[in-house]
Protein 1
Amino acid sequence: MTAADDLACLAAELREEAGPGLTFMEVCGTHTMAIARYGLRQLLPEGVRLVSGPGCPVCVTAMADLDRVLALARLPEVTLVTFGDLIRVPASRGTLAEERAAGADVRVVYSPSDAVRIAAAEPKRQVVFAGIGFETTAPTTAAALLEARAAGLTNFSMLSLHKTMPLPLRALLDLGETPVSGFLLPGHVSVITGTACYEFLAREYGIAGVVAGFEARDVLEALLMLVRQSEPEIAIQYTRAVRPEGNVVAQRLLEQVFEPSDADWRGLGVISGSGLALRAEFADADAARRFAVDPGPTLEPPGCRCGEVLRGVTDPADCALFGARCTPEDPVGACMVSSEGACAARYRYRGLDDA
Amino acid sequence: MPEHRVTDRILLGHGSGGKLYRDLVKDIFVTAFANPVLERLDDAAALAPTGRIAFTTDAHVVQPLKFPGGDIGRLSVAGTVNDLATAAARPLALAAAFVIEEGFAVAELRAVCASMAATAREADVPIVTGDTKVVERGAADGLFITTTGVGEIVVAHDLGSAAVRDGDAVILSGGVGDHAVAILAARGEFDFRADVRSDCAPLWGLVEAAVEAARTQGGEEAVRFLRDPTRGGLTTVLAELTEESGLGIEVEEQAIPVSPAVRSVCDLLGYDPLTLANEGKMVLVTAAETADAVVAAVRATTYGRDARRIGFVTAAHPGRVALRTPFGTRRVLDMPIGELLPRIC
């Protein structure tokens, strides 16, 4: 059986078993991208709608936090190190890429430990790692911080903008504006967290959740599992990677370095306990304490509906800016920048029938 | 041999035009590129072309200078030979301009020139003239090479997007993404080792075989369009072609060869192999009835063993490239946006 036949079978089963008016939300940028890249919406029955939630780390980073990152980058003694996606995201007044062109020392790395290496190689620079991401990336950042400490590097610090996954789902459901029938839960995050943290979805809200992998087949299979649930529960489709208890070693690492804090989410606002701040014993490596910066007032781009897109209320294509004023080449909002953003994924991997 | 002596390091004086300069030219460039035209050391080389001429230039700033599968020398010759090949032009002569940073190791320059010479020999093209400038330390990063090429066009018709017709076949000469991934791995910017070699190679032989096969099979104008998918990759070539021709293209994702190593690096870093740079691949659009013969001819050449027909030109969706996924769905392929990988060639 070819991959196409296999998927066609799953799609046929979905068509047969799915009732009308089902909306499933994915809350992981990699899912957003996979669904768009494989063109999976083309295989779904009419009654099944897929919407993106707050799953792209760059996208959910609040404007005020982006402004702080830019303000740090402007300090002459600072080498600002971060992941590639962040440097093109529009903050209130420009992007990190523009700061770099204007002379700021901004470097892109693929791993937080590369930032530690930069700090070791350039002792006269204040190397600040802007850490963003969910439970997936936070452990590697924690490991980098411990590595820097073990190496006695005093010129390494971190601005932790890390966030944790389950709480925004609660916030989203409490808002009650998105009719979610079930969640495609994030595969990578769940490798770390396990599944217990999602149980409240079924228990308190009566909403099903399935932890899904990232191949085309995984996503369709997970949707089928969601459709087939008679009693809402949290299940794992991505069994080859996710265990109910998660990765305990990584969880300990997170607890060692971080503690829950308030975090500001684009589209959802401040959610208590949904961020990861450095613990007091790492205060000396906390860029938020080490450098006093004035990020200035935040300015949201007029007309940008990223917030609504991140809550699954507005489809990317329904934003007036989408594909016209806002494209991956010249993005207005964060969701059009990151390759995992709902708008960028939709635009880049649009079907032939889309506008 | 020569009594001229060159130091271990390039000095500013080597760019002065005086004795040091002369010695450098003779000891390194003339020795490496040995040919009667260059040996005259005239300011301009005299050529005697017979037909229509193709003329191109390309600057090379790749970092690092040496990488698995090639170096800036091989790249600078292959890049220009391949640009000529896209016009169905047999390379006639190359010129090379070197911008060298003060302090650059002479041994390294010698190695780069040996690599250029070997690649030029392979492509059967002489390097007949050149220029050298030395800039002070910090004003350039090691070595930049600009190569200019002249070639004789072997077909009578104009190749290009205007020649492309509804129904034409789209052929790719082999797997994509190797050059970009080899450069990334060689830079050591992150913790992975990839067993990938750059595909950097001169493609005139491949193109000549394709042109010949198409002509035999489908007449004089059966080859429509040739382009090497360098920066921006295969996606960019196809997207540009649809934009310029006003026609659409449909390609089969599964038909596009991507090595497992390239695929896994892309999965890891979030790159799309179809947008990554190649330095030894060619996209060929030919009349549909000649496609099998062209693929067979290309496969018989050194650098075309994995050639495949990957899709076709269609009037169905003008201006857009459709990718058919292994799952039977279709999506639009868009040009990538800038700054992904600077100094890749």
Note: The longest helix of chain A spans residues 3-17.
Protein 2
Amino acid sequence: MSKQYETVIGLEVHVELATKTKIFCGCSTAFGAAPNTQTCPVCTGMPGSLPVLNKQVLEYAIAVGLATNCDITRYAKFDRKNYFYPDNPQNYQISQLYLPICRNGGVEIETDQGGKKIVGIHEIHMEEDAGKLIHDEWEDCSLVDYNRSGVPLIEIVSEPDMRSAGEVIAYLEKLRQVIQYLGASDCKLQEGSMRADVNLSVREVGAETFGTRTEMKNLNSFKAITRAIEGETERQIDLIEAGESVVQETRRWDDAKGESYAMRSKEDAQDYRYFPDPDLTPVSVSEDMLEEIRARQPEFRTEKMARYREEFDIPDYDIEIITGEKPLADLFEAAVALGAQPKKVSNWIMGETLRLMKEREVDASDLRFSPENLAKLISLTDTKQINSSVAKEVFEVMFAENVDPEQYVEEKGLKTVNDEGALKKTIEEVIAANPQSVEDYRNGKEKAIGFLVGQTMKAMKGKADPGAVNQMLRELL
Amino acid sequence: MANNISDETIEYVGILAKLELSDEEKEQAKSDMGRMLDYIDKLGELDTTDVEPMSHVFSVENVFREDVVTNGDERERLLSNAPQEKDGMFVVPRTFE
Amino acid sequence: MNVIEMTAAQLSAAIRAGKTTAVEAAEAVLSQIEKEDKKYNCYVTVDRDGALAQAAAVQEKIEAGELTGPLAGVPVAVKDNICTEGLRTTCSSKILHNFVPTYTAEAVKNLQKAGAVILGKTNMDEFAMGSTTETSAYGPTKNPRNPEHVPGGSSGGSAAAVAAGECIYAIGSDTGGSIRQPASYCGVVGMKPTYGTVSRYGLIAYGSSLDQIGPLTRNVTDCAAVLEALASHDTKDSTSVSRDDTDFTAALTEDVKGMRIGIPNDYLGEGLDDEVRTVVLQAAEVLADRGAVVERFDLSLVEYAIPAYYTIAAAEASSNLERFDGIKYGYRTEEYAGLHNMYKKSRSEGFGEEVKRRIMLGSFVLSSGYYDAYYLKALKVKALIKKAFDEAFAKYDLILGPVAPTTAPKLGESLADPIQMYLGDIYTIAVNLAGLPGISVPCGQDSNGLPIGLQLIGDCFQEKKLIRAAYTYEQWRLCKGTE
Ligand SMILES: [Mg+2]
Ligand SMILES: [Zn+2]
């Protein structure tokens, strides 16, 4: 490759809002119900049914707009986007084209080089999600489930301001963080409550105009996004180098194969015939409504970090990690509010929690254990009722199934034995059984005491306080 | 007829509207649509500069629902009109390549 | 007096007085249907058993004193584009030939609350697209005044059923004149209320921004009573308007003194049949004699209403009718190769010619590159038309004119030339674009004995003025003794 290329990326991010009901009807949005059991005439496109806007959807959309520095459109409308597909029961999607609720915003991200830059947000609009299509292998047909049809989405359309996969991830992390702080969505890529379509083009470094872009869909993880961006950049550069031209098209990413293919069909005209939906009335955002939503905005990360520095004596690094994910910050604050020492709570989060999250691929928003139980566990160690290795063991169980550590420790008999007589008896046995180590210790080998403590702990099945064992050993020797 | 509708246009509109026309119907549609458009072109006689397009007649605004679940399970009723169903879902020709 | 000749007010009074029962009334009307409907084809579906069961239930409530209104126990016919739970609703289209709604339209629920007995579903132009009821997939309806003529449309089955004694009153929908024009052709009263007055929830949409459900009745008194029952603020319809002046029967008074009535010169011009003109102007004279101030004026923009209407209605229809795709309900073609072929074949076989014509036009005017020139332009013209009416209503309480340029044409004469047919809607269409209320009241007949209707148009929410003027005129006609 002789020339230097630059990748230009813009994102369309769909976020499923955390409302109880769908955007235009009173059906539940709860996940995992049997097919078509959360449906009504409205969200299944029954003839004669009509949509009515869920107010919470509007409020969430405005809240996200305010948090991403957008102008809120004071007079917004809904439009119909017409296209035939079985997951879309009306064969049009109610969305916003002409007057979307938010425009001209942006968020700051860190670049790959460690600098800062603003990624512009072109607009945020409200729209309805489609149903789910399931392939039936036996009958060679597809099956349609409309439970997700009408689930509220906001689509956040960025400016083509990103130049690398790293910036894309940073931008997505930032959006996720802001939206999670607002409680507007849990933003899970894997479960599809946050979905990113990547618009990408390449051009020679220094070129004034953009190249032809493609749109990449079906990206279900940060890893897939990174791979797809790298793959598509390479594909486009190869085309250009070979003297061919990039076709403006929608491509589907196949993560298993690590490649994308064009979703072309002569039956897809890509002419959506948008027009204002006559069934919905315009939305007029008053100053009062805006003020109300503004007043309800939560403490965002920057403010939270400043407050943590002020209130808690924990390292900056911990603060950064904990406030990076709203569920972690919530967990931290709740446990501290229950009386646990901030540093200890922080240690549990920074240590075991993050380790197990990574190991078991659990999102912060999916953590199962309650702050109450974490506080109890800390209290159990503070009062030396269990030692630290037992605590870790209990935490693993808590992490998996949110057991009450007090009950669990009681039931499993994991409490440290504080009976001095029993401890003394065990130590004497250990001393008798390990003359060589005793000898070594007496000859000044400090290390030998560690071995003897270990042997005692083992004999006590871990239910002793190592400090106390150590002390008694020295006394007896 | 001022508006001459081409074969391509009728073909294209057929894709948009999901209608399949016989050759005879296509010819008829070309002529009907051309005549209708000629007629609609009459609107061009009016100066509409600075006129706001009017989609709603009255200024009814901000019609909202509260975020409260009001619907239960209606699956049986939903599927009662389905041309083809399986496992509580609608059956359609395969959509995956 | 025979049940089938009674008005709703008369019949409900007779039932309350114990002179007849709701069941007897239903039976009388059902046997009239059995006798006459082969001739007129007013109904797509008759629900004999259902009607009798409803009648029995309503009779009990009347006897218990729970139902006392003017519609209690009175049999009604419902246009076949208004959903009725458990009762087939086809829009007179093959594509919905087997569709049984799972819920009932709000307007019908309101009638049920008032004690209505639903007889069945009336024939119409397919998806309400037409002015003659000849585009129905279930054969044309014939005009009971002269079966060689059309009943008008698209609510032709409803109007004809009222005229033929096959119901006591009916409801229809009006997108561009679809209640008023068949009422005029069949010699009954028909009213299109202000947009937003009657809930559209359960009305299968044609042009959503124009559609409105309304009554077709034997006289103005019933019209007011039915409208009073139909009107409600429905939270399921975002375009439903909350109004506190829906006691329409209170407006049944003979009083037009000082009422300012304007007759648009544009409504009396070229194309208007001489006999229609004469009869309508005579009706205007009557109102003037009773104290109204009647004058001519220029409404302007009248000739732009039809092209604007057909652009907007076709565009909305093209989108509204996308849901008929052979997946969730209705007709699916027998054989197909893949998804898009299934869509295309189901829709092409399921929809009739006029529907396809409008869907294609609508898809085209919204398509990339044409949206501004056609659709947006039409919405701007709509704004101008609305303004012209606003100016007229600054001067007048009501606008008076004919409903249609001619009396009912012969069967088979209209469909050959669609544009000619569209021109027949010239006096009714602007009312829908501007969301106004309009009423059609019988005012005479032509030399062939075919009825002629008088149209009165009010400003938004001024139904009471319409009812007052229409009632005053009707009372004069009754006193005079009709021809
Ligand atoms: Mg979208
Ligand atoms: Zn629903």
Note: Residues A 22, 25, 27, 39-40, 42-43, 150; B 71 surround zinc ion (ligand 2) (CB under 6 Å).
